[in-house]
UniProtKB/TrEMBL annotation:
Family: Belongs to the DNA photolyase family.
Domain Photolyase/cryptochrome alpha/beta: 4-133
Molecular function as annotated in GO: deoxyribodipyrimidine photo-lyase activity; DNA binding; FAD binding
Parts forming coiled coils: none
Species this chain originates from: Flavobacterium cupreum
Transmembrane segments: none
Record's protein name: Deoxyribodipyrimidine photo-lyase
Record keywords, A-Z: Chromophore, FAD, Flavoprotein, Lyase
UniProt-annotated binding residues for FAD: 212, 224-228, 252, 255-262
Site (Electron transfer via tryptophanyl radical): 286, 339, 362
Keyword presence, Membrane: no
């Protein structure tokens, strides 16, 4: 007879510690098999040397090493998610499946499909909040509708957080004896169809943000935490991080709340993935010049702060947040290229790509999103460079030829600003 088991399904929560769904799975009546599925519906659109796949693979290896020390292991599968689950249902006597929630449109559809499949096979499935402090409709206006402006959302978020004391953390370690004893083969990266990327996810470091409020806008200081990819794939707990930030760094806490704000926007308004949050902006006549876009992508616009940012992104998968705002504004307003082009390029390149934040921030820069920068706010790249990289330290790091006589800007700022404002005015539906 097959052993009755509970499955815990890892997704964007690649850690054993303070993992809500895993905590509940380990309290079930059956031994727990941890599972990760390399989803072909996601992977088929990625390059074979995608750095994020390498990071997921390495993170799973770390989890597997922890499990091997107690006589267990992670079951790794690759395929269409529904087909993988059908094969698992045939191979194991599954009593329960537990996973943490994901709020992106594709994930919601996938999880509904799998939940229905499990139900048809008389398998109980349970999902838990782990990726955020407050989810779905936990932070709403008094009429129950979602917030679409950040500051009142943040105020309500903080009010609720402080009312609860702090976010409860889940001690999973005493429950590790509940993992099923097994020794599943851990596949090589090539068996999943990928090769190792030369681009690396850096370790996160909270000590670098001691003076975050004062230093966060200066890219040459490198005073960021490098946490974002770790948050994206759940190698760190958002509860531990928020509780730390609440005690140590309110400015950094505000950035974490921005993340939850955009996740709530995506959950409540899933059409923002492909449409402007503000339909009044649908009439903007974008130029969408492909040669201009290629120059932006390659970091050859002639504006050093823009080019340095794009080269940093292309070489490392990272870009400093202040520089992200400048390059996004440049694409949408100087070049009049639809924000969706930039969003797609960032989605391909960013190590910390997260759909909610990427769409939210791109629409913020374009002026078409919720609580967005007004359309007439057009960043001047030269002023941004003087304010935040006055000595050119950041620029020289990514543009070694800078001092040899740099390229002329591909477009005059004053001309581009006037053209952008006129184009927006003409396109906005009153």
């Amino acid at each position: 007879m097959k052993q009755k088991v509970t499955f815990f399904w890892f997704r964007r929560d690649l850690r054993l510690e303070d993992n809500v769904g895993l905590f509940h799975a380990l309290q079930s009546d059956f031994p727990v098999i941890p599972l990760f599925i390399f989803d072909e519906d996601i992977l088929e659109n990625l390059p074979k040397n995608d750095a994020r796949v390498s990071f997921i693979y390495d993170s799973l290896q770390k989890v597997n090493e922890q499990l091997k020390a107690i006589g267990s292991s992670v079951l790794i599968k690759k395929g269409k998610t529904a087909e993988v689950w059908k094969s698992l249902l045939a191979a194991f006597d599954i009593q329960k499946v537990i996973f943490n929630k994901d709020y992106e449109p594709y994930a919601i559809r996938r999880d509904l499909e799998i939940t229905q499949l499990l139900q048809q096979n008389s398998v109980e499935s349970l999902s838990y909040k782990d990726h955020v402090i407050f989810e779905e409709k936990e932070i709403t206006k008094s009429d129950g509708l979602p917030y679409t402006i950040y500051t009142p959302y943040k105020n309500k978020w903080l009010e609720k957080y402080h009312l609860l004391g702090q976010a409860a953390e889940y001690d999973t370690k005493p429950l590790f004896t509940r993992f099923a004893k097994n020794d599943f083969k851990f596949p090589e990266l090539a068996e999943i169809g990928f090769e190792r990327s030369s681009i690396k996810v850096l370790p996160h470091n909270l000590t670098q943000i001691a003076n975050y409020k004062e230093t966060r806008d200066f890219p040459a200081l490198d005073s960021t935490s490098y946490l974002s990819p770790h948050l994206r794939f759940g190698t760190v707990s958002i509860r531990k991080l928020v509780n730390w930030a609440n005690k140590k760094n309110q400015t950094f806490l505000s950035e974490l709340i921005w993340r939850e704000f955009f996740i709530q926007i995506l959950f409540s308004f899933p059409n923002v993935v492909n449409h402007n949050f503000k339909p009044a902006y649908d009439g903007i006549q974008w130029r969408n010049n492909e040669n201009d876009f290629k120059r932006w992508c390659s970091g050859t616009t002639g504006y050093p702060i823009v080019d340095a940012g794009m080269r940093q992104l292309n070489e490392t998968g990272y870009m400093h947040n202040r520089v992200r705002m400048v390059v996004a504004s440049f694409l949408c307003k100087h070049l009049l290229i639809n924000w969706q082009w930039g969003e797609a390029y960032f989605a391909e390149k960013l190590l910390d790509f997260e759909l909610a934040s990427n769409v939210g921030n791109w629409q913020w820069a374009a002026g078409t999103g919720c609580d967005a920068a007004p359309y007439f706010r057009v960043f001047n790249p030269e002023i941004q460079q003087k304010k935040f990289d006055e000595k050119g330290t950041y620029i020289r790091k990514w543009i070694p030829e800078f001092d040899l006589g740099y390229n002329e800007p591909m477009i005059d700022h004053a001309f581009a600003r006037d053209r952008a404002i006129a184009t927006y005015k003409a396109g906005i539906v009153k």
